[in-house]
Each structure stands twice: as C-alpha cells, then as structure tokens.
Design brief:
153 residues; four-stranded parallel sheet
Length: 153
C-alpha cells in the first residue's frame, strides 16, 4: 500500500495523557516506519500541560521506545520532525484560535493546502462538557452548543 499523497494535520487532544503514550504514539510511529504517512504531515499534540515542542517530542520518543521492541532511529527522528505541541485549555476560544494559527503556520508550505484534520473523540466530550458560558464558542441562549470559528474553517 503506497503512502497517501494528501498532506494532513492530526490533532490529538489530551496529548500528554496515558492512552496517547501507550497506544497512539507507538501506532503513529509504526505508520511512519511503514511509510504509510504522506510526505507532508503534522502531528499536533494539544493539552493543558506546560510543554514546548522539544519536551513534547521527548515524551513521544520515550513512549515509542518503551512500547516498541525495536526502534529504527532514522525513522523515529524523521517522524519526530513532524511532531509539534500546542498548549491550551478546552474551554477557551482564544486557545483554539492559537491552535488554528499554529496549524496555518505549519501547513503554509505544503503543496496542497486542503486540511483534513483528525481529532480525538475524547476531546469533544471534554469540550462539550466544559463549555457552558455565553456565545463565544460555547452555548447559546437556548442551550445549543456553538463551536468557535476554528471549527468552521
């Protein structure tokens, strides 16, 4: 099976969590190792934990090394070069706007700028469960969920 040619961003909400470390990062590494990811992609971790890109990459690398019986260093380093981190809350529109701006910067040099984005379902539950304020990306007067403009792009 050839690698897909369409670039994409994979956003993982709850990126500092246990499930991400024991299951998701090793699985993404295997996809990279088997050349099942396109040439242009970004894995963007999103969580409340204070980290920068390098600290996050170290967390991802450690989780992969602990979960895999064998690691190809060249493939791991190439994979990590596509891994990024964005700190933010799940209930603040401004943080989602920062995430959107970060994605715009990461994807700006890609040949095809269509952005299919994959998101972790647990984040929707957290987002929906924590949004109960006014019309700034939470609930309207009738209690309907309104999503920030980030999701309309």
């Amino acid at each position: 099976m050839p690698a897909p040619s369409q670039p994409f961003s994979f956003i993982l909400f709850g990126a500092s969590g246990h499930l991400a470390r024991i299951k998701i990062y090793p699985a993404l590494y295997v996809l990279a190792l088997k050349i099942r990811l396109p040439k242009e992609y970004a894995i963007v971790g999103y969580a409340r934990s204070a980290m920068d890109d390098d600290t996050f990459r170290a967390l991802v690398a450690t989780s992969i090394r602990e979960s895999m019986p064998e690691v190809t260093e060249k493939a791991l380093q190439e994979f990590l070069s596509n891994v990024f981190y964005q700190r933010g809350s799940y209930d603040k529109t401004a943080d989602f706007r920062k995430l959107s701006a970060r994605l715009d910067r990461l994807e700006s040099g890609w040949k095809n700028e269509i952005r299919p984005t994959l998101m972790d379902n647990a984040a929707w539950a957290i987002f929906i469960g924590t949004t109960n304020r006014g019309s700034d990306g939470s609930r309207d007067d009738e209690g309907n969920l309104t999503l920030p403009s980030f999701f309309d792009q």
